[in-house]
Amino acid sequence: MKELTSFEGLQCANCTTPLEGEYCHHCGQSVHSVLRPVHGLMEEFLETFLHIDGRIFHTLPPLMFKPGFLTLEYFSGRRVRYIAPFRLMFVMCLLSLFVIHIDTDLITSRSAEQRQQKLLIGQSGSFADDTDTSDVQRDLNKKLAILEAARADNTGPTGNATIVSQIDATEQKYRDEAKQRLIDLGKSPAAAASTASAPVQASEHEDGYSKATGPVHIGWLPDFANERLTLLRIHMVENIKALSSGSLSSRREAQERLITNLFGALPGIMLVLIPVFALVLAVFYLFRRRLYMEHLIVALHSHAFIFASLLLFALAGMLQTWLTPHAHWVIYVLGTIQVALTVWIPIYLLIMQKRVYRQGWPMTIVKYGFVGWIYTWLFGFALAAAGILGLAH
């Protein structure tokens, strides 16, 4: 498209104001048409991307290594070369939670594999502490129930015959150990063999769970709210049931569902927590005559740094998991990075609070301690709320 070099005699197509440049000084609309060839759209996309990319290079280094610099620059009016505080915080929040979610899934899967491997290698039944036959039978039922759930997960077209054979061997080992313990407790060999070979007893949690899923009725709430609370309660009980007494596959599904719901709820909860944190800063620095918006910018930059640090911490953990089997020395390098981040985060926030609010070190340290203590409680409540929401969906 041919570029316009002279705007004399042209009017804005939106408000008919005479134009003096590429953008109307009255309504802000561009003189360029949005109807353009595809290559024009690609050029605009690349220009926008490179512009944002340039601001990233100006923003991230001071964010990580110069406490309070971005905040003071924003207060001074030098804002164009940096990413806006809210956008910076929000992007860092989403990226860090996404990577931490993946890292958590890897840890959960690895822990589940380790538990199953420990179960299938034929560990001792540990019946030595049982003092009567009922204790032996109860412990045996618990162990056989776990094995039965593992057998169900590995039976069928997609099952693993080797694991099933290991489960059978482990089951026989448990039964033999239970029979021997019953004999030690004075039971005859025939009676001990009969007791140890009894079928697995079914779990007796169904009645309790069905009672817990009854309808919720709060008199001062409308019917749709009570129905919604009832549905959330049913979901919560079903998730808890799956986590505590389901098969291995159902437990894994419940864990994945809980983790996904937890990380899905955290961004919205953080959007509520950050303004509350800014309000706490406003209370502690009431006599510094700062606007609430200034405290909010401090909170946004603080959380952007925290999320960026958590992102690096999680990436280091993932690299440890992937690279350690191939190069064991990386565990020391990446572990050092994680330790450095752990130490740098509280130091960074303290220096930032000192530089932004310009108080002496003693008063800054005292306020830093109180603000940190209050924020810890706030974050704990937020995390608990996210966990409850995760269980209820």
Automatic annotation (TrEMBL):
What UniProt keywords are attached to this protein's entry? Membrane, Transmembrane, Transmembrane helix
The superkingdom of the source organism is Bacteria
| Regions that span the bilayer | 262-287, 299-323, 329-351, 372-392
Keyword Chaperone assigned to the entry: answer is no
Has the keyword DNA damage been applied to this entry? no
Identify the Pfam families for this entry.
DUF3667
What is the name attached to this protein's record? DUF3667 domain-containing protein
Organism, scientific name: Dyella dinghuensis
